[in-house]
Specification:
The chain is mainly α. It has five helices and no strands. The protein has one domain: Four Helix Bundle (Hemerythrin (Met), subunit A).
């Protein structure tokens, strides 16, 4: 199930980016078809985001005892995931409401669609932040530099020093 988290978590991030563009284009061209397609995509994204969130605990269990994994980094990702899921869930719920309205009336309310556009941009930013924090769980190279002892999470432990021996700006791995 932990691997499923890694698969599912990409859909909301990438999907939101493309669906924001789809909705913006649909609004600009006044295309009912593109706007309705974006509503369906928001519903699908909400489903994928829920799946990613629900499998997150399994992923945490897989990595929590690995070297370099800290509870602080995982916790930041979890908190960001809750906030992003709330925004994406609201986006999905409003999209369903828009689809129900469309089915009954064969029209979409422009004000509601513009509101969905704003919310989708916010949700995309929150999903991107969550993804970045999730990447930091295993990709220590993208973490901000922290004082010695905070990277490994061990009390009194020092973080391994990394040197840039090749001059390319990238730290060399400590265990060769």
């Amino acid at each position: 199930m932990g691997h499923l988290h890694l698969i599912l978590n990409h859909f909301p991030v990438v999907g939101l980016f493309f669906t924001v563009v789809l909705l913006a284009f649909g609004l600009k061209k006044n295309s009912l078809d593109l706007q309705v397609a974006s509503l369906w995509a928001f519903v699908a994204i909400a489903i994928f985001a829920t799946g990613a969130y629900l499998t997150g605990e399994f992923a945490e269990e897989m990595v929590e005892h690995m070297p370099g994994i800290t509870e602080a980094v995982v916790h930041k990702h979890e908190v960001a995931a809750r906030v992003a899921l709330a925004a994406i869930g609201l986006l999905g719920a409003l999209a369903i409401a828009g689809l129900v309205h469309y089915r009954k009336n064969k029209t979409l309310h422009t004000g509601i669609m513009k509101g969905l556009m704003a919310l989708s941009i916010i949700a995309a930013i929150l999903a991107g932040r969550t993804a970045s924090l999730g990447g930091q769980v295993r990709h220590t190279e993208i973490r901000s530099k922290a004082p010695a002892g905070t990277e490994t999470g061990g009390e009194g432990a020092e973080a391994p020093e990394e040197e840039d021996s090749e001059g390319d700006g990238m730290p060399e791995p400590t265990n060769r």
